[in-house]
Amino acid sequence: MVHISLIGILLRFILGGGAVVAASVISKRAGGSIGGIFAAFPAVFLAAMLTIRLDHSGSDLILRSIDLSQGALIGMGINVICALAVGALCASRGWKKGLSLSVCGWLIVSVTISYVIFAAD
Asked: Which of 8, 10, 15, 69 could cysteine-pair with 51, CB 3.0–4.6 Å?
């Protein structure tokens, strides 16, 4: 069973929520393109890396950090593809349908890649 400490959950909530608030404020003040750059800040990844340290140590900490980092790289790649799809689909099909199709595509690709990765273990 997966164990996440209460401090870990709170840290993820605060950093993730803080990143969303910061991206929203920056977007309103500096424009959507600049806000989008800040919206991509990996606050949840940072929080996950910090909380791994609370629950693990030594070589187990290193192995879990490597696993998390590899997963984050895959996730970030999928997010880039999703962002490109949002831009293309929103322009051609409207923002509601474009965003819906892009998020559905993200979900399908993410689940498929996760299944392939976890099936190998």
From this structure: 8
